[in-house]
Amino acid sequence: MTATPMDDRTIYIAAAGFTDDLVHELEDLHGARVLEVRGRLVAAAGPPRPAAWAQNVWLEPVAIPVASIGDAARKLKAVQRNWHLHATGHHRRAALIQEQLPRVAARPVVFGDAPPTAPLGSWTLWEPDMVLASARCTSPFPDGEPRFQENRTVPPTRAYLKLWELFTVLGKRPTPGELCLDLGSCPGGWTWVLAELGARVFSVDKADIAPHIAAHPNVNFCTGSAFGLDPRHAGAVDWLFSDVICYPDRLLATVGRWLELGQCRNFVCTLKFQAETDHATARAFAAVPGSRLLHLAHNKHELTWVLLRD
To answer: Would you name the residues annotated as active-site residues?
Structure first.
C-alpha cells in the first residue's frame, strides 16, 4: 500500500503549553473543525489556516501504512531524506524508526546565518502500523523551534532571543543607520540586539537599562513612559519595537495612535497575556492589514505582532 494524501485536513503543532489556545483559535476564529488532539498535535479539517498559536504546520499530510520498523523507515526515506519525529505515542517503536532514518544535524543556529534550506519533513507514529507524515512544513526547524548559540555574557535577560528568532524567520531586520524606537526597553536586551545590528536606537523606559547597554554608541536612552511618547512629535521612524509588560488592549491603543498619527514603517510588538489569553485583542491585532501574528518559540504566554511596510 502507498501513502494516502489527507487532503481534507491540516496538522498543526501547537506552541508548547498552548494547545488549548490553538484549538480555540482554529474553531472560534477560523471556524475549522478540530478532528483530533494528541498532545501538541492538532488535526483540523480543511486547508491550512494562519494560526498564530501553531509553532509549525504540516502542509501536505499523508497516511502511510507500515508493516514493520524497517518498512516505516524505508517508506519515509523514499519520500525524502530529512525527517523530524514528533512523538504522540508508541514512543519506543517511533524512536526505533527514527534511528533508521538519516541523522539530521541539530547544531545551534548562529544569529545572522540564514535558516536551513534543506527540506525537513515531520512525522509521527499515529498507530503501530500507521505513520502520519508531511514532507512540507511551514518551518525549516524541528517543530518550528530554532535553537540558537546564545550570548550568555552581554544581554541582561534571554528576551533578546525573541528578536534573534524573529529576524531569522522573517529574513528581514533593521539595517545600519535606520532609526528604531524601543519602547519599555528595560533592562535592554532588545536595545542591544538593534544597536549591534548598526541601527540607531532611541530607547525609552521609566527604569534604567543596563549601564553597559546604555553606553553603546548606537543607543540614546531616555527615561520616560513607553506610552507617553507622542507619535506626532517623533518624526520619521523606521522601526517601532515594544516588549513592554502591559495589557494587550493598552498596547493596541498605543499602536493605533502610531498607525494613525506617526510616521513609522515597521512594527514589532509583544502581546503579553495575563492569566487568560485575550483572544479578542489578538484578533484585533491580526486584523490590521498587512500584519502578521505569530508565536515565537522564545515567547512565553505571548504573541508577537509584526507589520512590515517596506
So the answer is: 272
